[in-house]
Specification:
By secondary structure, the chain is an alpha+beta fold. The protein folds into two domains: 2-130, no CATH class; 143-342, Heat Shock Protein 90, CATH 3.30.565. The protein is built from nine helices and five strands. The chain has a five-stranded mixed sheet with strand order 1-2-3-5-4. Strand 4 and strand 5 form a beta hairpin. Helix 2 (31-44) packs antiparallel against helix 3 (49-61). The termini are far apart. The model is unreliable at 1-9 and 212-220 (pLDDT under 50).
């Protein structure tokens, strides 16, 4: 009878060990089931390696803290029972408590290591996400800067290029009407036609370039108040400049005044042929500005295309200075543009 019992125990020990070892092959796919399959080997053979590996894998993959605590207690209890059944237990209670605590610590250790690995993996993933977010924000910043540069370029194209081309168109139209030479009239008509086409293409380009958030730094070289009288003298219309501005206003403010005058004179040439313009520079204790007022037109204006971005750009410039830009028809039938900004703009 005893030999058969010994044979049965050996059989069950071998079966438990084989089950625990085989189950470890599937620990990554079924970590909890594999842990349960390793408990017989721990109970019958007193093996701690298989439950240790299974618990580590379970703790590495699971986020259920209650499940992990329960598995750690279960593993500690099974190890304590196996130790008691082995006959190595001592009658001294202190030793038994120390051994039980030791077995429980062994059961908790893989849980802590698995959670540590899981936390490290989460941190690494989080760092990757943060880096990706920074790259995304960096790309958005670059797009914003590009949009502002496009808007600034559109504003400069309208202020500078259209100013010159519209003057060419106006002068060519005037020559076409005044000359009696057929060849000169045809040449003037061609120049005016090309100028009008150029203005129309410029309008499309400005529309494409204008993007949101276009408040970038000015392009160089940029005009100042010293260039204002030359601008008025070469405007192609009868214009009178009076008043003056403080000599210590900042460069952005000077550019804004210049561009305002330039745009206003361009509009007078385009939409009020034969009109005269009066430009008044002014300042008081807290503000400065310029008023551009033109009389009613004396001739029918030529059908030149308009981009409708001039006053928008001027208002943006005025807002950058903390000021305002107002425009409207005068009671006499003319038109007035008024820029007003605080002196402390720097």
């Amino acid at each position: 009878m005893w030999p058969n019992l010994a044979y049965d125990m050996t059989y069950w020990q071998s079966a438990a060990g084989a089950l625990g070892a085989a189950a470890l092959l599937f620990r990554r796919r079924f970590p909890f089931t594999v842990f349960l399959c390793t408990l017989p080997a721990s109970l019958i053979l007193g093996l701690l390696f298989a439950p240790f590996v299974a618990l580590f894998t379970l703790a590495e993959r699971s986020r259920d803290r209650k499940l992990l605590v329960g598995c750690a207690l279960l593993s500690g209890v099974v190890s304590s029972v196996s130790w008691l059944l082995s006959g190595e237990a001592s009658e001294e209670h202190t030793y038994s408590l120390v051994q039980s605590a030791y077995l429980l610590a062994i059961a908790v250790t893989p849980i802590l290591l698995g959670q540590l690995v899981q936390t490290r993996r989460d941190l690494a993933r989080r760092l990757i996400e943060i880096e990706q977010r920074r790259e995304h924000e960096r790309a958005l910043h670059e797009q914003t800067v590009l949009a502002r540069e496009r808007a600034q370029l559109a504003r400069e194209m309208h202020d500078v290029v259209s100013h010159q081309v519209s003057l060419i168109a106006v002068q060519a139209g005037a020559l076409q009407v005044a000359t009696k030479d057929p060849d000169a009239r045809e040449t003037a008509r061609t120049i005016r036609s090309l100028s009008v086409g150029t203005l129309d293409e410029l309008r499309h380009m400005v529309t494409l370039l204008r993007a949101s958030g276009g408040r970038a730094t000015e392009l160089s070289p940029q005009p100042t108040l010293a260039d204002l009288r030359r601008l008025v003298a070469t405007s192609g219309i009868e214009a009178h400049l009076t008043g003056e501005l403080p000599p210590d206003i900042g460069t952005p403010a000077q550019r804004t005044v210049y561009r305002t005058v330039q745009e206003a004179l361009t509009n007078v040439r385009k939409h009020a042929p034969g009109a005269t313009a009066t430009l008044r520079l002014w300042h008081d204790a807290g503000h400065f500005g310029v008023d551009i007022t033109n009389t009613a037109p004396t001739r029918i204006s030529l059908p030149l295309p308009g981009s409708h971005h001039g006053l928008i750009g001027l208002r943006e410039r005025a807002e950058l200075l903390g000021g305002t830009l107002n425009s409207g028809v005068t009671p006499e039938g003319g038109y007035q543009v008024r820029l007003r900004a605080p002196l402390a703009t720097e």
